[in-house]
Amino acid sequence: MPSSRKLDPTIIVIFGGGGDLTRRKLIPALHNLMLDNLLPQRCAIIGIGRRSMDDDTFRNHLKSGLEQFSRRGGSTEQPWDDFGSRISYVSEDVTSKESGAALTRRLNEIDSDWGVRANRIFYLAIPPSMMEPAAAMLQRMGVCRDCKRDRLVVEKPFGRDIASARTLNQLLSGMFVESQIYRIDHFLGKETVQNILAFRFANSLFEPVWNRRYIDHVQITVAETVGVENRANFFEQSGALRDMIQNHLLQILCLVAMEPPISFDADEVRNKKVDVLRAIRPILADDVHKSAVRGQYARGFVEGQAVAGYREESGVSPHSCTETYVALKLLIDNWRWQGVPFYLRTGKRLPAKVSEVSIIFRSPPHQLFPSAAVDNWQPNRIVIKIQPEEGINTRIQVKQPGTRLLLGEADMRFRYGEAFKAAAPEAYETLLLDAIRGDATLFMRADQVECAWNVVSPILAAWEAVPPADFPDYPAGSWGPEAADRMIARGGHNWLQPGMKR
Ligand SMILES: NC(=O)C1=CN([C@@H]2O[C@H](COP(=O)(O)OP(=O)(O)OC[C@H]3O[C@@H](n4cnc5c(N)ncnc54)[C@H](OP(=O)(O)O)[C@@H]3O)[C@@H](O)[C@H]2O)C=CC1
Ligand SMILES: O=C1O[C@H](COP(=O)(O)O)[C@@H](O)[C@H](O)[C@H]1O
């Protein structure tokens, strides 16, 4: 890995510089990279937006966000000035035919100050409808497939269905080569999500049992306590299937289910992930009700606080049919996973913010312990804790202390915080640094995004055709609609409540 201080001079242009994502995630991430000496020595940040703002106003807006959102808080380790002096703002409306001129001038000024043509990263943190005009603006500026030192980072959502994702891919691939395009899914930057690959492929203990012969089923839970917050405009158009399943949960599933790659070459890893998506058994229109459950929260209590129902949230229609909860059963038609159900669920206003992957193993082939000894018996289980706890639990059966042979459960626990002293980087730190270095392994390739849309398309179609009869159907603060419990029970399983014993 090259020393980051020796990385090529880089200019990061953030379209949507005045937006929420930039203030909450991108600037704190870049600031932390600077504090860790990981930014290129010559690195400038330019924010783009329609509003007119001078550089100081823009810097102050970002600085207050840093104090609020950075994992280090408003760090005093190094004065803000160091970082702030790298930041400037250029007002451009990407929909205007004249846009691009002011940004080009700013880029040229920086290149001329540095005496070098810097690498350029164009980060599109703008609403989906602005992606196309922003790409056209870049084209007008002369950014193109021949400019190999220029990269494009594209925020989610990548399209709102398979057709719009294809259109956006076609548009971008007409202008850039695939290796210049970094489609972001911030879950892939999470330390614990990347650790799924390390756990599986850097150890020889687990891979031999990582298949249908030993694994009974897999559960992936991404639960949130937050409601729709101030994003009703976006969420009303999206829903949990598009917002969470199509990207984050399917990407986690790929990491759990993929075949071992030959190397960590970006395309090698992405090929193996695409194989998983392509092997997911399509859900037939008539079977959607058996394999997919949607839900919407009613008012209730989360962490002791009374909270409004989704339909009462500001900006949400009182008759909204948007799902805030999804549970799915997916099957993967390949040798490794034939017959092993993968249950996925995600929801807003659930009792805890917790993301976990549970691998539940089959029972031993022969039960040699007398039934009295196995009163409490549960199959082995590996729980990959993504957040807020970060680590892995391996649940085993052990002999309880005492003169009788009684079995009990115990956990072998790994926790990042206990095993390592260093603080983990935020997902956006990892991903921004990878984009600066030119490593696309943790980013989505065009075919990955399209395959993931193909998985959810039949469900989207079925749900759009028939509005839900019973929304809202789960109280805020519960684990979701009862229909999700019935769905998993039909497969002979039950949801493991994250953080709880069973
Ligand atoms: N916020 C979050 O936590 C997350 C956001 N995302 C994605 O990131 C993207 C941005 O989200 P977010 O920051 O929340 O959105 P905001 O609405 O807060 O910001 C949107 C930004 O886009 C700019 N913009 C809009 N239209 C134009 C235009 N015609 N020309 C130039 N700039 C324009 C706005 O500038 P101005 O106001 O000056 O017009 C503003 O800075 C979205 O795609 C979203 O889905 C993804 C994951 C999480
Ligand atoms: O992409 C999104 O993710 C967040 C959850 O991310 P996390 O890192 O806080 O777990 C989710 O709240 C949001 O709706 C979605 O757009």
From TrEMBL:
SUPFAM superfamilies: Glyceraldehyde-3-phosphate dehydrogenase-like, C-terminal domain, NAD(P)-binding Rossmann-fold domains. Residues 13-195 form the Glucose-6-phosphate dehydrogenase NAD-binding domain. Pfam families: G6PD_C, G6PD_N. NADP(+) binds at R50, D93, V94, K156. One of its GO terms (cellular component) is cytosol. GO terms for molecular function: glucose-6-phosphate dehydrogenase activity; NADP binding. Pathway: Carbohydrate degradation; pentose phosphate pathway; D-ribulose 5-phosphate from D-glucose 6-phosphate (oxidative stage): step 1/3. Substrate binds at H186, K190, E224, D243, K348, K353. GO terms for biological process: glucose metabolic process; pentose-phosphate shunt, oxidative branch. Residues 197-495 form the Glucose-6-phosphate dehydrogenase C-terminal domain. This is Glucose-6-phosphate 1-dehydrogenase. It comes from Pelobacter propionicus (strain DSM 2379 / NBRC 103807 / OttBd1).
